[in-house]
Amino acid sequence: MLKTKIAMAALFSLSAVAQASMIDADVAEHRPLVVVGEPSSSGIAGAIPYIDLGNNLFTGTVQLQYSGNRFCSGSLLPSGRHILTAAHCLTDDAGNAFPNYNGFSIQFDGPEGHEDINFRSVAIHPGWTFDYSGNGDDIAIVELSTAAPQWAERYQLYTGDAVGQEYLRIGYGGFGWGDVGDVYGGVAADGENLNRVFGTNFFDGGNAELCYMVGWNCGGGAVLTSDFDGPNDTDGDGIGDNDLWGQLFNLFAGTDFYVHGATGMEVGSAGGDSGGTLLVNGMLAAVTSYGFSFGETYFDYGGGLNSSWGEGMADTSVAWHYQWIVANSVPVPAPLALFGIGLLAMGLRRRAA
Ligand SMILES: [Ca+2]
Ligand SMILES: [Ca+2]
Ligand SMILES: [Ca+2]
Ligand SMILES: [Ca+2]
């Protein structure tokens, strides 16, 4: 139910767009959504290189659960007590925190199995209003009730300029192929991924291109954008048919129009990846926020907003929000914990307020 609610809420149309823009924001669809770059003809075998079948890679990327239903992804911060995720995973339609987070938990998946840990508190970025056209503050932190398992990877924060950098995207979201988009149930029988899916891409830009096209996120560098390139180049000019940012802005991150990476082809985000991990040089650089399509006129391969080739992704920048993340993920000092539960609880409540 929560999963449905999140998907619905994220599909609301945008209205308050002040900036002059290339296309009507109401026409541009968007939703939070790893779809692999392979064509569907490669089948599941073609996608195996993208799936963490042994659950032994990227163990700091976790699933959010509500009453046993998985609905978003997240990343374990250096404190070992906090999960960085997307605010839209944990807020109502107005961007407000829920009255409580009873029934919510974080599932860690490692080679030895699963471990679930309840929430102690949630911090939602104060700038988040569930308006994707706004300032891009789609970021939240879950404090765990107990420390994460020792085997789970703690991601360090990337504070440099990520534009032009290759990234690795990791999530538990909808699965699919670049030509057909996301196909739920591609990996797990119940329609939800039980394994992490990952792959590479490049950050093409910040907010400037989105601002130019639809008037979104014009106020700062809170988001990082990238496109999901496909292999087709019908006119043979070296620019892919579905190279969104290349076609529109001559932004060609990477070495050619059809990006490669360790798994062979790049990836796009899909439903359920929200809040998931984007690593640059092994450090946490962004949080998966939403995907968007400008339609087939503007290089979408087809199928509407379905995580196909030719769509774009906007992700929340970690560097931009560095101070807020650090302030809201203070490690519990080991000596203090020894002095007494009461003192410790006071400190925890203050941070939760
Ligand atoms: Ca790309
Ligand atoms: Ca071309
Ligand atoms: Ca591109
Ligand atoms: Ca599409």
From TrEMBL:
<feature type="signal peptide">
    <location>
        <begin position="1"/>
        <end position="20"/>
    </location>
</feature>
<dbReference type="GO" id="GO:0006508">
    <property type="term" value="P:proteolysis"/>
</dbReference>
<dbReference type="InterPro" id="IPR009003">
    <property type="entry name" value="Peptidase_S1_PA"/>
</dbReference>
<dbReference type="Pfam" id="PF00089">
    <property type="entry name" value="Trypsin"/>
</dbReference>
<keyword id="KW-0732">Signal</keyword>
<dbReference type="InterPro" id="IPR043504">
    <property type="entry name" value="Peptidase_S1_PA_chymotrypsin"/>
</dbReference>
<feature type="domain" description="Peptidase S1">
    <location>
        <begin position="34"/>
        <end position="330"/>
    </location>
</feature>
<dbReference type="InterPro" id="IPR018114">
    <property type="entry name" value="TRYPSIN_HIS"/>
</dbReference>
<keyword id="KW-1015">Disulfide bond</keyword>
<protein>
    <submittedName>
        <fullName>Putative secreted protein with PEP-CTERM sorting signal</fullName>
    </submittedName>
</protein>
<comment type="similarity">
    <text>Belongs to the peptidase S1 family.</text>
</comment>
<dbReference type="InterPro" id="IPR050430">
    <property type="entry name" value="Peptidase_S1"/>
</dbReference>
<dbReference type="InterPro" id="IPR001314">
    <property type="entry name" value="Peptidase_S1A"/>
</dbReference>
<dbReference type="InterPro" id="IPR001254">
    <property type="entry name" value="Trypsin_dom"/>
</dbReference>
<dbReference type="GO" id="GO:0004252">
    <property type="term" value="F:serine-type endopeptidase activity"/>
</dbReference>
